[in-house]
Amino acid sequence: xxxxxxxxxxxxxxxxxxxxxxxxxxxxxxxxxxxxxxxxxxxxxxxxxxxxxxxxxxxxxxxxxxxxxxxxxxxxxxxxxxxxxxxxxxxxxxxxxxxxxxxxxxxxxxxxxxxxxxxxxxxxxxxxxxxxxxxxxxxxxxxxxxxxxxxxxxxxxxxxxxxxxxxxxxxxxxxxxxxxxxxxxxxxxxxxxxxxxxxxxxxxxxxxxxxxxxxxxxxxxxxxxxxxxxxxxx
Length: 234
Prior knowledge:
Layout: H1 7-11, E1 13-19, H2 26-35, E2 39-45, H3 51-61, E3 66-71, H4 77-87, E4 95-98, H5 110-118, E5 124-128, H6 136-153, E6 165-168, H7 169-172, H8 184-194, E7 199-203, H9 210-213, H10 219-232
Parallel strand pairs: 1-2, 1-4, 2-3, 5-7
Antiparallel strand pairs: 4-6, 5-6
Helix pairs in contact: 2-3, 6-10
């Protein structure tokens, strides 16, 4: 795919970054996204460390690229992401991306994730992590969640728990996400499928560190999500 992402496309794209206690990791994430020319809506999810101060410091370096919203208490990645989805419309975006703020996603993949939207080939994009690089517990949990997403939501995807996804603003207005925690990943896919939003899968790189491995969907989280999925059926 040779479709180029223009500066105008980037200026029309906003990256949602939910952030909870990411003071030691979020600065290079913000800087790399800004240097690529993309805008950000960062939601501080009631962090108890100095994440908020780090975001404010970085915002002073990129005042036109960083838009900050802050929740008083920790509500979970689902609520923080949805807060970003709601807030982003005041900036009149064309395209909206969500990424993790802990450094496991690379800003180098932004063009690839946004490209199918700009080219009109899809209205939503799911970033697929390489399974061979995924820690064993994560790989197993992801396989289980892919199966559960297929069973409960009737949609087959390669990486149901990815935190790197994109959607057109028009399509985003159609979806309704209520998950508090990591169920948001499966809910996003469910809403895209239920609203007949054409989607594409794009391979992305993932940077695993001891910190990023400690977060996300492991077996314990998969069990929690399963319980939530069952509850949502009734």
